[in-house]
Predict the 3D structure of the following.
Amino acid sequence: MNSTCSLLILIIIGYIDWQHRRIPNKLLLILAGWAAVYAAFSSESSIENIAINIGIGLAITLPGYIKGLVGGGDLKLMLAISPLWTPTQLLCIFSIGIVS
């Protein structure tokens, strides 16, 4: 269920971002809310994984944001999805997103 709901929201966000070059904050809030609920009730999620994922997300997006290559929505998106996957899965999802 985690993957289906979160990937559906990510596909919608990706389409809107591709068409309008903006990521709506309302969708980011929905995704972050879903991630928080998942993290609260999942035995797979841990504070350590979330902290590592936040670090990964900031390491990937913050330099681009500072240089003006990545928007604030991309930075917020990485932070919103940090509770959803393990660090390895997060890097795979990010890589797939970049390639596609």
Summary: The chain is about 80% helix and 0% strand.
